[in-house]
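In response to reviewer comment 3 from the previous cycle, which asked for concrete evidence that the modeling workflow produces usable outputs, we include below a single protein chain processed end to end. The sequence was submitted unchanged, and the resulting structure tokens are shown without manual editing.
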Amino acid sequence: MDIDISQLMQNISIMALPILFAITLHEAAHGWMADRLGDPTARHLGRLTLNPIAHIDMIGTILIPLFMLYYAIKTGNWFIFGYAKPVPVNSMNFKNPKKDMAIVAVAGPVINIILAIISGIILHIIIFLIPMININNQAGSILTTILVPVALMLKWSVRLNVLLAVFNMIPIPPLDGGRVIVGILPEHLSEPVSRIEPYGIFILMGLLFLDPFHTLSRIMWPVISLLTNIILGIWPM
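The workflow returned the following structure tokens.
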């Protein structure tokens, strides 16, 4: 299947901002929560900012999403994945390192769900307003021309933020879900789980591309679809 370059560029222009916002706020939320709990490491390194440049990872934020967008257009399998530079956290600064690390970890997915809901609300407002705009005059036509791409960005913002939140809650280190599990389990159980972290990325790649136990197809994708449909107001029939 040949790639339509114009379609690729159009998709990049629509999805670039939602991806940047989703990843930036995700990482900033980790740093903000760590700072609130007593660890100023991220603040001292300038990682509490909402400036995407401070969080961009050349491979995870740019190259991998571009490759997966290319793959999605070619195959029709719309799974877009990416990541930013992890926010540095020193758990030794926390009063309760295990519990506080779990709270810091869950802050990222929580902010993504909040961003998805806000995007959904604004999207519904735009959808409500567009039919009321008089597109027969120049001002109405210009406003509609602006609002339609914004609506598409908001729709992708909902999808990407839900995807990022649910995916990150998979209970495998180094994902946030893995860190939450390590934080809430008793020491004799959390220690073996934490040892998985060096191999976690390989386990995740195997799950994503092979799905040997159908965990993703039976659990993760239905959860993503349900949350996305609820926020967008589309109930599956």
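The radius of gyration is 20 Å. We consider this sufficient to address the reviewer's concern, and the full set will be provided in the supplementary archive.
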